[in-house]
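tool_call: predict_structure(chain=1)
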Amino acid sequence: MEISDLPKTLAEPFERIERKEIAVIGGGLIGLSTAYAAAVRGQGRVKVSIYEAAEVGHPDGASSDVSRVFRHLNGPDPTLTTWAKEAWTMWDSLGQLGGSAILHPIGVLFLVQQGDGTNSKGRHVRPYESAGAWLDDSVRVLDEQKVPYRRLSAKNLEQLYPQFHSPSIEEAVLDLGAGFLEASKALSVLLDLCLRAGVEYHPNTRVARVEPTVGGCLLHLEGNREVRADAVVVAANGWMGDLLPLPPGTLTLAEQPLVYLTPPEKASDLTPGRMPVFISLNTDCYGFPVHDGTLKIADDNPYRPISHPDERREPEEGYVNGVVETVSRFIPALKGAVVDRTHVCFYDRSKDERFILDAWDEDARIVYGCGMSGRAFKFGPVIGERLARFAVSGQRPPDLAEFRIR
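tool_result:
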């Protein structure tokens, strides 16, 4: 597959190029996606550089992991479903360019539960009063955008996926074209594609400060070095506050422990060909089928507030056991699973848990993305393309208007 075969949003050149030197701060998924879009759509007319404080894929980064959920059903917000459809095509193309699939469309199952120790609703469905009402409005968006899905009664669900067995389950929706993304592979492929597109990669290069100047930007690197660019995209996630002093309360950081289980013997029903990704809308616990020998589960609720990503520490044993117990209530086969390891990620959450994709200054010399709230990975190529277009043109893409800082 050639670059010319990419989706329209990456294959076509930018309509407007006002800035020809773009610096991207942060080598996570959003930063890499931004750099790649700027280089490919710039078609040799835009010089792009990435500055990463460590290395792409380092274990403490927010983007580094085995897997991430990809779903079209994202609540009653039509923009996010539109973006998911666009992202699906882009992920498929990026996988072909990289020589190996990144997106695995095995389906994502959304469970509605009551009783059995579950909450009346989880964070996913706020501000709705019930998971069922949230699901009703969400599938209307899928209908409007012709996204295939199946709505299942508890009986239908157990016939289709007997792994999910609990009297608490009332119904479910299966997002048929959804699934999971191989996170580490995505970073590796995007870095390789960036380099092939001519992006300059500067690992182990920490940016201490960034400021707009007349007609450009100035990056202050550690070691008393300075770099100038026509525009900068800051994609530093939880480290955003080290570079740009956002208004107090704009973002909150929280640890998000991930639990990896060694599945019990004779657990063939827990493999990708037999089991989908799942999200419990009432408990906010979610998980994946077995991948590379382990099965990943997590609780999407904030575990412990932190003020900086460097403050992360391992979760308490009681918390880990609680997550396993909660998921085992509706996937009984996991009652015999053993915890293989844990990994503590983090979310930078905005007040309303919507992305913040905005300009720092009136001239949009500094464009930034934060407040990803644990939802952005699936949209990475789309968000990157929008931020790249914003930085290169100085004009806000129309669909970013609703993601201004609030």
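agent: Helices lie at 8-11, 29-42, 78-98, 131-144, 154-160, 183-196, 317-330, 380-393. Proceeding to next step.
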